[in-house]
Amino acid sequence: MAKRWIFTVLLVLIGIFYSCMAVKPAGMFASLQDQDAKTETDAGSGAAGRTGKAGSSQGGKLGEQIKSILGKITPKKIQISLTEKSNQVLKAWAAQQSVHGVINVLQTADHGALSVKPGEVLAPYNSNHKVISFLYLVALWVIVFGKTLLSFSVPVICLVIVPIIMIINIAALWKSGDKKGMHRIVIAAVVTTLIITIAVPVIMKISILADDYVFSKNVNEILTSLEESEKSAGRIHADLRGGKRSSAVIQGHITFARRLSNTVIKDSFSYLLVFTIIYILIPIFSGIGLYRLSKFISKKILGK
User: What is the pLDDT of residues 151-205, one digit of tens each?
Assistant: First the structure.
């Protein structure tokens, strides 16, 4: 009976502890942030002193790298990474919109002396650009949702989900008839709470790491191509604003705009496909993986 009360008080204290942490959402990650800041400071101040100790400092460097990665799992670091990603999406979107603008201008060109009607020829490209523009907007909303979820996940988990977990486990504790069962219930509650608390930051960090270390080359190549297309669209805009609207010039611009539009549509779909993999599919499967891991660990602890 005494152990049952001790375990009950322990679970209540855990619930209170997590509720207090909700007042300062990043509190649980503060030590990691301090470690990361200290690592960066030490790396800058001690670079010269480590020059002659390359052989003996491999373990230290590995430790610093691990601390750096752990430090970047903090909500603040992840928010910064997501903001940078949203700026990247806006940059790609701006390039696509620049080419779309050229298509719109050329569609209204006087086609009296032209062999083709710009409005009809460029209509399919205009429709495709509208679809892509909508998809870029969806990508931005995914980033906004991620930032919002990260901001509110810790308070909601600490104030709502963790207390519910504690109540359920306290009820199970008082129903349990043996001491081993009570130990398992408490351990399962602690493990489940820990996994749930770190789930959102860890899932988002997995996506960011995939973006930085797996898909960065692909994304940079796509962005470079989009930048070149944006520059080409700017030159067409400049020609049209400069009064170069002869039939031959317009015809040439229409032909070039079609090729340019095909390139931008292809690059945009490639960029959005990679974005979908990194920031939609990876979080979904990571979340499912963490859920199954939590369920598996709990079952093993509880002996089910």
Answer: 888 788 888 888 888 888 888 888 876 766 777 888 888 888 888 888 888 888 8
CA distance 236 to 240: 6
Q: Are 275 and 89 in contact (CB under 8 A)?
A: yes
CA distance 260 to 96: 10
Q: pLDDT tens digits, residue range 280-304? A: 999 999 989 888 888 888 777 766 6
Residue 303 has what pLDDT? 65
Residue with tokens 């796509």: 222
C-beta of residue 245 within 8 angstroms of C-beta of residue 253: no
- Cβ atoms of 92 and 135 within 8 Å: the answer is no
Average confidence score pLDDT of the chain: 78
Q: Which residues contact 143 (CB under 8 A, 6 or more apart)?
A: 82, 85, 86, 89, 279
- Flag residues of the chain having pLDDT under 50: 25-57, 70
Closest CA to 154 of 188, 201, 189: 201
18: its two tokens: 């997590």
Radius of gyration of the chain (CA): 28
| Rounded Cα distance, 125 and 121, in Å | 8
- Which is it for the CA torsion 106, 108, 110, 113, positive or negative? positive
